[in-house]
Design brief:
The protein is an alpha+beta fold. It contains one helix and five strands. The chain is 24% helix and 22% strand. It has a three-stranded antiparallel sheet, with no helix packed on it. A two-stranded antiparallel ribbon has the order 4-5. The longest helix is centred in the first third of the chain and has 21 residues, at 2-22. The chain is globular, with a radius of gyration of 18 Å. Residues 1-22 have low confidence and may be disordered.
C-alpha cells in the first residue's frame, strides 16, 4: 500500500512541476496600487491583469478588457486595446 501511495504522489508532483514550467511569468512585484482602482491591466501582456498587487491571467484564448474588468476574446477589446487585437 505504501508503494502505491508513493507512485501516486510522484505522478501528482510531476504534473504540478510541468504546470509551473508552462505558466512562468516574469512580473516584478511589489508595485504601487491605486486603492480607488485596484484592478489594472498589465502594460505589455494582454493576458495578464493585476488585482491589487497580485497578477492574474485570462489564459491563452482571452485578453483582459480594462473597460469591463473581464477576460474577453481579443476581437472584443480591439477598440480599447488595439495592441491586443491580434
Amino acid at each position: 500500500m505504501l508503494g502505491f501511495k508513493a507512485s501516486v504522489s510522484n505522478k501528482i508532483f510531476s504534473k504540478f512541476d510541468a504546470a509551473i514550467t508552462l505558466c512562468t511569468l516574469d512580473l516584478s512585484l511589489p508595485r504601487e496600487v491605486d486603492p480607488e482602482n485596484p484592478i489594472e491591466a498589465h502594460p505589455s501582456d494582454c493576458h495578464v491583469f493585476f488585482v491589487y498587487n497580485y497578477p492574474m491571467t485570462c489564459g491563452e484564448e482571452l485578453v483582459f478588457n480594462p473597460g469591463t474588468l473581464a477576460c474577453e476574446p481579443a476581437e472584443a477589446v480591439a477598440d480599447s486595446r488595439p495592441e491586443c487585437a491580434s
